[in-house]
């Protein structure tokens, strides 16, 4: 079922290892970083808006 | 009248925000499952291509990334048309949330195309009709993002962006045709790749990876659209309720 | 219908005549950019002949784009544009007039000086005729597509650079067929096919672009 004879064969990719693994590596990197940036943006936005609401409440109660 | 009310409710950020938030984990999970299955089939099971050796395995991300880059542009144009026709707030936000992912997919397609081209064509970049069109698609994404970023007013930014998307979608076939014509006339070093008969495992691997990329794109677009919603609707009651209710 | 278009053309031409310096500047921009290439590449006639169509066309794209930010900006500033948008006649017709006027002051002069610049690149007489003709029928498409970009970026900061980001990718078919026509003549294949496709692009964009531009203007004016 598995096409490869050994793990080192799998890594070598028949001599194309550099091209194949840098393609997959770049894709994995982008797909890991993009969600991290998106969720960090989401959290900072929430924090900022919360600060704004608190500031507004303080202004209206005083 | 009732239908209209329902449509409006679904398209309203107040209902869509929690719905998108609840759906993100499922899309992520499905994407991971498809991704693992696709990688297993593509990287471990699929046989060697008799023309391109093992180097062809880049196809399992190159083709899905290219498909998604084109598909996302079409989806954005669809939202643009909806937004211009029915004046819904959600459609502009969806288009803007999708754009960075579409641009990244186009970039990935170019990057993996270069990494594929080097061993196959002997050059990192070849002015092949498909690669050139993909580059122009990336330019179109960048133009859209630059335009929407330059307009402060949300309504105008949505509508101007939507119009640009529709103009772009009308032009894409013309651009593709002209690039193809240009390419055949100049008879560059375009090698026809992926024309060799593909084994069914290869095809399945590619389809599974495409599903993985698709689900990933939906998840990331939902993440981004939620941020855009909070930002834009910060003065409404529902955002205040979300923020003070402690929901993330 | 034609009355509105001709009235707008007449008015815009009159305004343009008051600012002849702008037209001349764009023209000299075209001339200087084209003349820079031999200095950068070297004077070999074979090489220059091969590069001429592309160089002249790319310079023409950039030169027509220079005046795009001004296309609606002045009318927007003094309120004329809002009046035109509220007027009973369709805004698309007004835009058609403005696009034609823009072509008369920015595209047409390029076609007139292009053969002179072609001589610098050692083009044959046939190629010069096709070049002039190609620029003549291709530049209206540039004005039409450019108008959409100008309307979308109306009143935005950094509008000039933004217009080029939006519009240049859409100019690619015109560049390919325009330069292709000259190239095909140089290599002896005949440029008729390219020229007819170029004419088709021009007709399509003159029919379609003014209405998209009108929609973009209404969005900008809201």
UniProtKB/TrEMBL annotation, chain B:
Pfam families: Cytochrom_C_asm (PF01578). It is found in: Cell inner membrane; Membrane. GO terms for cellular component: plasma membrane. Keywords: Cell inner membrane, Cell membrane, Cytochrome c-type biogenesis, Membrane, Transmembrane, Transmembrane helix, Transport. It is a multi-pass membrane protein. Its main location: membrane. The chain crosses the membrane at residues 21-45, 65-86, 98-117, 129-151, 163-182, 202-225. Residues 26-186 form the Cytochrome c assembly protein domain. It comes from the Bacteria. One of its GO terms (molecular function) is heme binding. One of its GO terms (biological process) is cytochrome complex assembly. The keyword Transmembrane helix applies. Belongs to the CcmC/CycZ/HelC family. Required for the export of heme to the periplasm for the biogenesis of c-type cytochromes. This is Heme exporter protein C. It comes from Candidatus Dechloromonas phosphorivorans.
TrEMBL record, chain C:
It is found in: Cell inner membrane. Pfam families: CcmB. The keyword Cell cycle does not apply. GO terms for cellular component: plasma membrane. GO terms for molecular function: heme transmembrane transporter activity. The chain crosses the membrane at residues 21-42, 54-73, 99-121, 127-154, 161-182, 194-217. One of its GO terms (biological process) is cytochrome complex assembly. Keywords: Cell inner membrane, Cell membrane, Cytochrome c-type biogenesis, Membrane, Transmembrane, Transmembrane helix, Transport. It is a multi-pass membrane protein. Required for the export of heme to the periplasm for the biogenesis of c-type cytochromes. Belongs to the CcmB/CycW/HelB family. This is Heme exporter protein B. The lineage of its organism: Bacteria, Pseudomonadati, Pseudomonadota, Betaproteobacteria, Rhodocyclales.
């Amino acid at each position: 079922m598995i096409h490869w004879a050994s793990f080192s064969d799998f890594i070598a990719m028949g001599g194309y290892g550099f091209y194949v693994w840098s393609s997959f590596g770049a894709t994995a990197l982008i797909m890991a970083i993009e969600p991290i940036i998106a969720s960090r943006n989401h959290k900072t936005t929430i924090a900022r808006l919360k600060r704004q609401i608190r500031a507004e409440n303080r202004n209206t109660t005083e | 009248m009732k239908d209209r009310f329902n449509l409006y409710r679904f398209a309203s950020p107040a209902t869509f925000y929690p719905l998108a938030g609840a759906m993100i984990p499922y899309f992520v999970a499905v994407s991971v499952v498809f991704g693992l299955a696709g990688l297993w089939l593509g990287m471990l099971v699929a046989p060697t291509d008799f023309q391109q050796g093992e180097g062809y395995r880049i196809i399992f991300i190159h083709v899905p990334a290219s498909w998604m880059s084109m598909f996302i542009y079409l989806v954005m144009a669809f939202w643009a048309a909806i937004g211009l026709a029915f004046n819904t707030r959600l459609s502009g936000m969806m288009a803007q949330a999708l754009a960075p992912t579409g641009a990244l997919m186009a970039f990935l397609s170019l990057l993996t195309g270069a990494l594929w081209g080097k061993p196959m064509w002997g050059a990192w970049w070849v002015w092949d009709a498909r690669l050139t069109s993909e580059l122009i698609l990336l330019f179109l994404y960048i133009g859209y993002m630059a335009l929407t970023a330059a307009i402060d007013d949300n309504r105008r930014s949505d509508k101007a962006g939507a119009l640009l998307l529709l103009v772009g979608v009308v032009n894409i076939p013309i651009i593709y045709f002209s690039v193809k014509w240009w390419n055949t006339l100049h008879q560059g070093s375009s090698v026809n790749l992926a024309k060799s008969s593909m084994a069914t495992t290869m095809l399945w691997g590619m389809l599974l990876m495409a599903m993985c990329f698709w689900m990933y794109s939906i998840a990331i677009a939902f993440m981004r659209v939620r941020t855009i919603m909070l930002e834009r609707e910060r003065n409404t009651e529902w955002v205040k309720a979300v923020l003070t209710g402690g929901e993330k | 219908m034609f009355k509105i278009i001709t009235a707008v053309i007449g008015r815009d031409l009159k305004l343009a005549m008051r600012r002849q310096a702008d037209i001349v500047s764009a023209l000299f921009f075209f001339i200087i950019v084209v003349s820079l290439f031999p200095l950068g590449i070297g004077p070999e006639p074979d090489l220059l002949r091969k590069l001429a169509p592309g160089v002249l066309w790319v310079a023409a794209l950039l030169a027509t784009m220079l005046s795009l930010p001004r296309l609606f900006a002045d009318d927007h500033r003094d309120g004329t544009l809002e009046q035109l948008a509220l007027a009973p006649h369709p805004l698309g017709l007004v835009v058609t007039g403005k696009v034609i006027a823009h072509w008369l002051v920015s595209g047409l002069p390029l076609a007139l000086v292009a053969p002179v610049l072609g001589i610098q690149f050692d083009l044959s007489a046939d190629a010069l005729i096709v070049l002039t003709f190609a620029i003549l029928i291709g530049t209206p498409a540039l004005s039409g597509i450019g108008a959409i970009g100008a309307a979308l970026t109306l009143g935005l900061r950094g509008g000039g650079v933004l217009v080029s980001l939006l519009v240049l990718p859409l100019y690619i078919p015109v560049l390919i067929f325009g330069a292709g026509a000259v190239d095909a003549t140089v290599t002896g294949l005949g440029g008729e096919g390219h020229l007819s496709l170029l004419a088709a692009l021009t007709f399509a964009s003159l029919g379609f672009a003014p209405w998209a531009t009108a929609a973009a203007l209404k969005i900008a004016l809201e």
